[in-house]
Every structure is written in C-alpha cells, then in structure tokens.
User: What shape does this take?
Amino acid sequence: MKHFFLGLSIFFLLSFCNDIKSTKQTSQLVNKKDSITIKQLFNAALTNGQCYQWLDELSNDIGGRLSGSPEAQKAVEWGEKLMRELKFDKVWLQPIMVPHWVRGEKEEAYFTSNNIKYNIPICALGGSISTPKNGITGKVVEVKSLKEAEQLGEKLRGKIVFFNRPFDATLLETFRAYGGCVDQRVYGAKTTGKFGVLGVIVRSMTSYIDDYPHTGNMYYGDISENQKVPTAAISTKAANLLSKKLKENSTLKFYFKQNCKTLPDAPSFNVIGEIIGSKYPNKYITVGGHLDSWDLAQGAQDDGAGVVQSLAVAQLLKLNNIKPKHTIRVVLFMNEENGLRGGKKYAEEAKTKNEIHIAALESDAGGFTPRGFSFTATPKNQELIKSWKTVLAPYGLTSIGEGHSGSDIGPLKSETISLVGYRPDSQRYFKYHHSALDTFEIVNQRELELGAASITSMIYLLDTYLK
Assistant: This one.
C-alpha cells in the first residue's frame, strides 16, 4: 500500500510538471497581457460599441443594397464618410463594374387543384430572366436533385421543373445544410433549360417552414439564349403544399409571373480604410464584410452585421490605444451576392501591386452569438491559431478549426496567407437569409457587439503573432 501511494504521488508530480511545461509552451503564444487586452476589447465593445447605431443607419436609412442600385451607391458614400469620421490613416474607393439586375414589379404565382386556387409566395432568383408578359402556366414535375432532372431529360420538355430538396435537419452546422442543397437554386435552370422546360421553381433555402420565399443568385452558364428560362423560389410552406397536391393530382398546373431584367453592368466601388502598421507598414491584414445585399429587405444580417463589425475593429483598437504592427485594412466589399466582383478586384489589384497580405478575416455569417472561427493556413499557423483558444474560450469562442473562411477573401488565397472566417451561432441565420425577414429589428445589440469584440480580438492576435 505504501508503494502504491508513493507511485501515485510520483504520477501526480509528473503530471503537474507536464502541466507546467504545457502552460509555459502556451504562454509563449498567448500570455497574461493578451488576456488583459482581449478583456479590454470586450469591455469597450459592450460599453462604447457603435455597431448597433451604424447598422440602424445602414439598414433603415438606406435599406436593401443590390449591386448597381441607387441604394448600393448610398451605402458606398455612407461607408466612406464613416471611415473618415473614424480617422483611418487612409480612405479610398476602389472602382469596379458590377452586374445590375432589377426585380421589377412584385411576382405572383398560384396553382389550382380540385377547383381550389392556392396563391403561392414567390420571388424571382437574382439573374433570372422574366416570364412573358402574361406569365407562364404548365404542368409540374417535382425532382429532388440535379441528377434526377438530368435523368428525366426530354420528359421535362414543356413542363415547369420543381426542385424540392430540403435542408438536412440532422446537420448541426446549418451552413453545411445550405451547401447540401443550394446547387438546385444555382444550377437548376442551367441543368434543365437545354431540355426545353417552361421554367424552374425551387424550394427556398431555409429549414424554417413559413410563407417567406428566399431569393439568391442563379446561373445560366453557357446555355444558349433560347434555352434560358425564368427561375424563382417559392416559400417552404408552399413547397410542402405543392408537393402534397402533386401526389393527389399529378396533372395540376402552376402559374407564375415575374418582371425582372438584367441591365448593363454599372460602376460601383469597394470602400477601403487603412490603419498603417507601426512595424510592418507594407504587410497587410484585411478584415471585411460585403456592403451589397439582396433587395427583399434591409440586409441587416446579410451582411450589414459583417460591415459594421469590420468597421468596429478600427474603433475598438483606437479606444484601447492599440497600435497594430501590420497595416490593418477594413474593406467593405461590393457585389458578393451576385458576382463577387469586389473580392476578385481587391485580390487582383493586390497581386498587381505585389502587396504582401499575411492574413484576412471575413464576417459574413450574421450578427449572432459568437462561437468561434474557421480558417485555412499553413500547418505552422494552423497550430498557432488553434493555440489561441486558451484566451478566446472565456468569451464563448470555443469552435476554432479548419474550414471555409469567406467568399470575398477567397481570391486572396495563397500558400502563405492565413484566411479566417468569423463563425457566430448558425441556427437562426437561414430563417432570415435572402428573405424579407432580414431587417434591423431582428438583430440583437449585445450579440452584435460581442461579435465585433471577437473579430477585433482575432485581428489583435493575428497582428501580434504572425510575421
């Protein structure tokens, strides 16, 4: 028994020594100063943060900001003015040409079954052509996938194709569920147009069952003009109803009408503000969100939240007298929703100028409760970023691992850059995404400011430890 306790004592002593060794290794990466600084950043955001006020202005004073629209231009002017008020060292507009698609008059849709007319909530998908003036009417073929539509082929001719694959409810990460079915929205018309279909309707990209259709971009690809067909989304409640009625009456006919069109490309801008680095002024860390939004609502969550949180990085660093070593760029990207022209232009110009970007962070997942970050980086920087969980976990930032960072910063990808995506809680995001529900009123002020502090903390760590 004596030897047992002696052995047990040695075990605990060795364990304690290993813990000390591990702690020392960690402290080389994140130390007490970092913990104090991050606490100060959160305190400043929760007591003096201005994200909510800025989002109120962007959402309620300007509204939906589809690329090429007057509202998008107003948002550019708003962003530039605010950056100057925040006293960035440099502020400029980066010119780009963007797609200019307009919705036109409100869409309408219905079907009749057993002499009962059912009105259907519907919205055109971005980039779609219009229907003829009097709309289109046709029999409906329901499919669950692009592959199923391809297999039906010529049997679809003269029909309206109804893509009805829902979110996978078993996936806890709702962005994975979205990724698992969004192909039918994006490529449904491209896949079926060559078979002579009349049109395409798709179940809205959300797990919520309601009467709000969700728009989003679609893509015709290289099919000929005469193969392009009008494409729209119907609400999930309507999709369930239509599917049910088709089982009762496979010959029922669906009617829809939309008045959208694509105008010539329009001039617009990325809005860029810069805080010049004290030690490495020619090495850049970019943080941003996209300024454009869909036109059905105000784009408060997608991506007004990301825009104001990115702007808050400059405010919170200044409030805490933090002078970054690297140059920090806040970029309000234009045209993420239907072309990614802003992200591509920013990366293209950076390459032309031989700029060295060591990191980039994007906020485009809403202003919900902070959960963590996803990233792509070199093996060395992967381990470095994972090690920061020690100081970030107390703020709920426990999910830190490899994954998609963001669409606008994606074009910056290289063998050396670290790309980081802010990841708030995702459970509510797709209730609002691309729908008329995406308004300022559904944003929680505290969650929004917590996100700003989280993003600023990550920028602080990237600036402190990356070279």
